[in-house]
Amino acid sequence: MFRNYIKTAWKVFRRKKLFSLISLYGITAPMVFIIILFSVITHLTQNEKPMSQGDRMVYLDNIRWMYIDENGERTRSMGNWPSYQFIKKNLKPLKSPEMVVSAVSGEASDIYVYRNNQRFDFTIKYTDPEFWQVCDHEFLLGRPFNEQEFEEGQKYAVIDKPTADFHFADEDPIGQMIDVYNESFRVIGVVKEVDVTKHRIAANIYTPLTTNDRFKTKSIFSGGCSALMLLDDRSDFDELNDQIQLIAENYDVSDIDYVNKLEIDVPETSLSQEIDTLLWQMFSYSTGTFGTDHYQLIAILIAFLLFIVLPTINIININLNRISERNSEIGIRKSFGARSGTLVVQFITETVFFTVIGSLLAIIIAWICLFLINESGIVAGAVFSINLKALAYTFVTVLFFGFLSGAYPAWKMSRQSIVHSLNS
Question: Cα separations (Å) of 25 from 16, 21, 362, 365?
């Protein structure tokens, strides 16, 4: 039976080619968007080197210093990145839960290199030896700096492959010197490039925190670092959060003017937060934080729904017109005993058939678009692909999209009387 439905759908497709192509375009365009969207989302959420342990990572990016008056009202509040000294003194000594804590500069600093009247941009992050335990970078050459070299403030650098190729071409970069803010650093390691979507750790150059004086300050307001905490088990998150809240409650702020309370939030990483921070990193402006009202997340969802709902409404109208042209066929089939349910199944099958064809075209177009995005370097180092998870999500969306756009027209037309169908 379904085989006959497919044959009928193919004949309908070939009967009015222009009409069918317009319908196919209405299906393909939003499907391209859906496939690209799911490919980007799965790329953001999958755990792969150098963050293959990302499911056990917790991040501390912000602490707030406040003044609470005698009425219990907050009259002053200031937030900043935690300082390296704060992380070293309060987080690294924690014995429970079991974890490894690393401090890394919160924002990648820009380095500009001019060559042949062109400006080339590189980024640098300052970090500590634990960084190489928390993150499993793929070393192509050399090694990371160790604890002793870190404590001594040795001017060593680990660079990524594109930076090595740019500065040293075919030469062996290990042992060579590289200029960072008019200071020379010795290259001791080369790692595979980290794409910008892993914004907390992505950089072209990594050097010890102890080589930069701004991270040596003990001022609690001179932050600049992010704490990466790798738990032995993700289920230890609640215990970690309890420990951090104890630190906040017991922190001595008696010698700080206009501050009498410290507040620390360690959120479980959410996709909305990752997208928000990624947009900030890529376009150099803050899209705001996803707070209690989640305005940005709501806006994204509304845009996504409009991109789905509007084409769906359009396809419903197209399908309604397409099916209405077959009124006489519907009337004849009903006069020979075809039930409304049978007609509904037939027309939904035809619509899903059209949707599947459109989706196959969308996969090809989306693959080309992702290839061009990867080649353009608009998202530095990122390699987006149509993986199995993205295809699975797309398949579910295809079925929903096809059913939704075909169910109402099929139901409406199948309920017409035989006389109305034959006379129309």
Answer: 14, 6, 9, 12
Whole-model pTM?
0.70
Rounded distance between C-alpha atoms, residue 141 and residue 46, angstroms? 26
Q: pLDDT tens for the chain, 424 residues: list them.
A: 556 656 666 666 666 677 677 777 777 877 787 788 778 777 777 778 888 888 888 899 888 888 888 787 877 788 888 999 999 999 999 988 899 999 999 888 888 888 888 888 899 999 999 999 999 999 999 999 999 999 999 999 999 999 999 999 889 999 999 998 889 999 999 999 988 778 889 999 999 999 998 887 777 667 789 999 999 988 899 999 999 999 998 888 877 777 888 888 887 665 555 555 555 544 443 333 334 344 555 565 566 666 666 666 666 666 666 666 666 666 666 666 666 667 677 777 777 777 778 778 888 888 898 888 877 766 666 677 777 777 777 777 766 766 666 666 666 666 666 555 555 5
Q: ∠133-134-138 over CA atoms, to 5°?
A: 70
Per-residue b/e over 281-310, b at no fewer than 16 CB within 10 Å?
beeeeeeeebeeeeebbeeeeeeeeeebee
Q: Which residues pair with 141 in a beta bridge?
A: 190
- DSSP E strand boundaries for 116-246: 118-127, 139-142, 156-160, 177-180, 183-191, 205-208, 225-231
